[in-house]
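Entry 14. Ran structure prediction on the chain below.
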Amino acid sequence: MIKSLFKELGLTTNEIKVYLTLLKTGESQAGKITEASGIHRRNVYDSIERLIQKGLVSYVLINRKKFFKATQPERLLTILDERKQMLDKKRQQIVDLIPKLEALEQHPDLEVSFFKGVEGIKTIFEDIVRTGKDYVGYGPGGQIEKILKYYLNHYMEEMTKKKMKRRLIYNELSKKSGFVKYPNEMIRFLPERYGSHAALRIFGNKTAILFLSEQQPLGILINNKGIADGYRKYFEALWESASE
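Output, structure tokens:
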């Protein structure tokens, strides 16, 4: 666990060994570090140089000989904060870049995308959130919780922040499977005989057709205003016949 945490901070295997060795031995020359760590002397010097640059190792000169010493472990928190600042900066750069990349995209009258697996379904739901628009859809109730699991809470939190409203139609079986009703949702129900793992979400000019099987979730995302408007009319007909 310790080594994996160090690696997440950007340290190599040799750097980790050298740093831990110095913590145990205290001030040491390169030869002693080599002996205690089992790392080749040349690699020890390379690792020490990088650790000095990272502020994890310092040295003193005694009779013209270098004695190296590990700095206090609290320095690791500083490195973590520095990496966080760097990632935050890169994130902002990507956020600024996205509009330029989107401007390069082609926008045909009909665009169809296919998605497989849970990550693919997440991509579709992220697209729904990104629009920030209210949406409608039907199915399949509690099955969504089984497929998206913990991600669903994140998805709902983002929609709540954007105050996105939605009307959904589930089948009566969903009441028994323990589906969760979230803020800004209106839900109506159809008889159990109409239940399946198929689902539909209509948002903006897009229509998402979903098959939420636990074995292999599938999604088709259609970007076309005419198709979205047609499915909305179909949804309204179902909404009128569904019960509260």
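The radius of gyration is 28 Å. Will compare against last week's run tomorrow.
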